[in-house]
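COMPLEX REQUEST
Ligand: protoporphyrin IX containing FE
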Amino acid sequence: MGGFAGSGIVFANGDDWKGRRRFSLQAMRDFGVGKSSLEEKILEEIQNVADDLEKMKGAEISNLKEMMTKASCNVIHSLIFGYRYKHDNESLQQLIKTMDNIFSGPGALSASGIFPVLNLIMKDNLKMRRDGFSTLKKYIEKHITEHRESFDQEHIRDFIDMYVEAEKEESERTSALNPAALLASIMDLFAAGTDTTSTTLDWSFKWMIQYPDVQKRCQEEITKVVGSGRMVRLSDRRHLSYTEATLMEIQRLSNTAIFTIPHVAVCDTTINGYKIPKNTILIPSLISVHFDETIWRDPKVFNPERFLNQNNDIINKENLIPFSLGPRICPGESLARSELFLIFSNLLHRFEFSKVDPDDILSFDGITGITTTPSPYRLKAELR
Ligand code: HEM
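STATUS: Structure written out below.
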């Protein structure tokens, strides 16, 4: 999710939105989304997370989310800014703290976002989020200035260079691509691409320690398909149906994004018999689809097999919509799904995750800010 600087992608409409969204999707493709170069970047991050986990030597871990955010932040950081950070780098820690300040607390999608008057009684969260935005803005501005100074048309390094180049081309010089939109689009992509992915991963391992049998079945499948001598690759995905179904079930039940970003009706219409006048703000509820008893049998039960048929083929895909639907569907879906699959399967391949104390009781009620995160929990990771 994003929608932060006003004139980027998330809160833009019409031609401006179209232009920036098209540009961003193209730029993400050019810089590796769907290509092996991106896979290599993600695998490098996994290696670093695995090193962090290994250093814990089976001791209690209570900051798994932070480890995951380092990985997801670095992937999007290298697409946009052209480089990654070592996991113990001070600037990376600061960046993650900033993102956390933006995303924790009641968000743009919760009651106070829709009824801003509630912000008056939630001043601390609002201040934290504003400070977070202003820090992130300064960070991005610094990089844009440096990119403009060292820009070389013959050597396009990343998203920012691509945008600067597009701005220069007469034919592209529209209100869609301009300096303010560059800043806002980067804010959107960066913010939307980091926390959503790491929160989903945080949920994933919570579900795995709650359901060790499911974890074991994923591990057996991965070992059978991949062996023990190499990492899991995207090309293995179609042979890892049970692992894929497990990730789908995790997304169905976790609902990292409970709602979509607010949409506006572009004309008078009718939905399920309700008249919706033009310009009405609509906020579709994704969680209501994922818990709909007319679609899912026992919707509250964790059961990856609901996504598999007898031949072990994936089914029921169309009813799972964690990235929303339609023209404003999440443009980061492909990137996010690659990250989720590679990080989840490779970490399960290498480690056994479990509760610190078998008597630990875990709650699966989420805490809703802009995204919905799992309540704090602890786990341990031991080499398999
Ligand atoms: C598990 C990870 C993710 C989830 C669950 C997720 C979910 C969503 C959802 C539900 C929306 C709202 C769609 C709507 O309003 O109908 C959205 C929008 C958006 N997402 Fe994601 N997202 C994820 C990862 C990413 C990544 C990795 C990126 C960037 C590379 C990204 C960039 C965006 C942007 C820019 C929008 C606004 C699109 C627009 O308004 O046209 N997201 N996302």
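REMARKS: The chain is about 50% helix and 5% strand. Residues 1-5, 108-115 have pLDDT under 50 and may be disordered.
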